[in-house]
Design a protein that fits this description.
Radius of gyration: 24 Å
Number of domains: 2
Structural class: alpha+beta
Helix content: 55-70%
Strand order of the largest sheet: 2-3-1-4-5
Number of strands: 5
Distance between the termini: 70 Å
Shape: elongated
Length: about 230
Amino acid sequence: MINNFEEFLSTSQANIPIIGFIVNLVLAALLALVLRKVYIKFGNSLSNRKDFSRNFLLITMTTVLIITIVKSSLALSLGLVGALSIIRFRAAIKEPEELAYLFLAIAMGLGFGANQTIVTIIAFFVILSIIILAKINSNKYDENQNLHLTISSDNTKELGIEKIVDILKEHCETVDLKRLHETSMILEASFMVEASNFDQLNKAKDSMIKLYSDVKITFLDNKGLL
């Protein structure tokens, strides 16, 4: 029985149709580029969306390759489990939205790798349509959009998060802390702030620089740098 099982593992390999594999690989690449454009334009991430979205093409095509090879052999499928237990991905995922788009890219690769081309294409465009419609609809009810504010400094002894919040509250109507990264060497905080005009933001910036000359301040809206 053991010999029969080992023989089954060594012979249970199917020939991979080259033309079909190339078509799926090209389609996966095209959809990954479309996903990149959508993420750059409609994403809400505070990080650099252009740099992060470059990973979509590589992740999608690599997933297609892995699934196409692994599905043709039970032995390779079992070996993939051991390989994934060794590999550790140390990607700096700062926000849940980044993970969601990565998961969509991997799902596309799984679909094309499993040769579920039509289903994958339909599901991809349905998901993107929902993302775009939800973004457009949210903008209609939020005409006075808040701005992303990122503050970083190497002087963590003098500059504290409490002092930053106090300065922002003095000049901005609303201040909402979204992310805080603080170590003994660096402090980086991201806020969602709302101001009636740019002069208020400029005054907040001047007040911050006046007290802490080494502080770095970046204002971002959903379309780019102010």
